[in-house]
Design goal:
The protein is built from eleven helices and ten strands. It is an alpha/beta fold. The protein has a domain of about 150 residues: ATPase, nucleotide binding domain (Nucleotidyltransferase, domain 5, 2-Layer Sandwich), CATH 3.30.420.40. It has a five-stranded mixed β-sheet. It has a five-stranded mixed β-sheet with strand order 8-7-6-9-10, with helices on both faces. The longest helix has 24 residues.
Length: about 325
Amino acid sequence: MRYVLGVDAGNTKTVALVARLDGTILGTGRGGCGDIYEAGTADVALTTIENAVTSALKEAKVEREDLVAGGFSMAGADWPEDYEFLWKEMSRRGFGKHVVIVNDAVGALRAGSPDGTGVSIVCGTYVAIGARAPDGRTWHHSWWLQSGGARELGTRTLHAVYRAELGIGSPTALTGKILEFFGRQSVEEVLHMLTAREGKRSVDVGRLARVLLDAAQEGDVTAERIVREHGTMLGEYALAAARRVGIERSPITLVLAGGVFRHPSRLHVDSIVARMREQAPQVRIVHSRFEPGVGALFIALERAGVAVDKRLLTRLTDSMPSTALFAT
């Protein structure tokens, strides 16, 4: 029996999946940041990835030499030298006779699009946007987009509250929600807590994205504006991705993935789609059925010459690990 490996290495977490060639998942592993740009050093990221893969192999009772192919969907796979570096490191570790490296936007696209083509927007801690055409051309936003995702939404939320407190911006329900979130009595206390030279509190501002989306869903004008602006911006970059691979005039499958899109509010998604449909009216939204790590597994299976068909998907779905593995 031979096996494949799929790895999703992101900014928040790294997930590894080991499966048989029939799609049955046998082992899983998880770790922290696997992004060679964000983990502190590339060695730290590589160690995180190796530990996650080792755990998955151990659980599956599979040896490295039994891996026919390894698919790696990776934040930090941005420039040609990154691909070469990551391919060499994964190959050197024996993570598949054949190793395929893709940017995490492309892995998410493969997870959500039935044929692996279209445009993907992954909105988690950060944003990944990518596109793939039927002829195989791919593009991902990499460093073209400098901000986005939950942390960007959280930062915009804080700035709106600060501006409202100073009378520069309009009063907003976000103020009360932020005070409640941090357990403080005033906006100045929040600002001091986040910026003081001594006793400064480190906070993942990405957690404020939910506060913002809640307020927008409840009708707060400032929150709605921030969400719409962010969605419009993502729509513009998604259009750019489609143009880069020449599919902007075709029906576009738009794959949405990531924790921000799990919020029940439709405002964010509607803003993305509205902007895209201004220039590409044939956009079809797909909320990804599978996590990006499964997309990496599909890539490995296809590299091993296995068709991802209905029977394989049934086996894969029946053996899918708990959603806790993918939670952020």
